[in-house]
Amino acid sequence: MPAGLRLISHKLCPYVQRAVIALTEKGVVFERIDVDLANKPDWFLKISPLRRTPVLQVGGTAIFGLLSLTMGPDRILWFIPYDLHAPHVWSAPFFNTWPEIVFLAIVNFVAVLITAGYANSRTMLARIAPPEKMAEFFGLYSLSGQSTSFLATGFVGWLTLVAHNQRIGLLGETLFLTIGLVLMFFVKEQRTTAV
Q: Are residues 116 and 135 in the same domain?
């Protein structure tokens, strides 16, 4: 067993369930510790600054949510077959096969693009909002993002439940991204004036 490999979890968290499935599928031995999220213990607050589960603790290092991501152990990009019995790339207990490494690289690349998208959207809002109402526009921008954040995750969860397949469920994200792309074509890039 890797030194101190512990999964800090909550029994109803769907991300914990995915982490458990991924660890079990890979044959990784781990200790599972459930916490009450309504009454979080002090030791949990110290290792999880976001106060959320899952947290994978390897020795003294906590890895937040990395193993909650779904992986295809026998496929690279879901369509390139991969031999499950191929030797591991290195001896780490996770991210040691080519499908996992390719998946991790893609997720990191997408994270960079999403971060750039956030920065670009704020820059565009600063260019098109009337100067005298800038604070109001940014407030509405922030509120609308936070108040609708449940839509995509809820739709992905519902689609996964209906299809009994997480890959099909993740198509919900693609749908929302496509809707956003189409709506961007209707944005006028000129500064407006306050009424």
A: no
Q: Express each pLDDT in 156-182 by its tens digit.
A: 889 888 988 777 887 887 888 788 888
Q: What is the DSSP string of the chain?
A: --TT-EEEE-TT-HHHHHHHHHHHHTT---EEEE--TTS--HHHHHH-TT--S-EEEETTEEEESGGGS---TTEETTTEE--TTSPPSSS-SSS-SHHHHHHHHHHHHHHHHHHHHHHHHHHHHHHHS-GGGHHHHHHHHHHHHHHTHHHHHHHHHHHHHHHT-HHHHTHHHHHHHHHHHHHHTT---S-----
Q: Which residue has the tokens 């998946």?
A: 103
Q: What CA dihedral angle connects 86, 90, 93 and 99, to 10 degrees?
A: -50
Last residue of a domain, one of 53, 70, 87: 70
Whether the pTM exceeds 0.85: the reply is: no
Domain assignment of residue 86, given as a range: 72-128
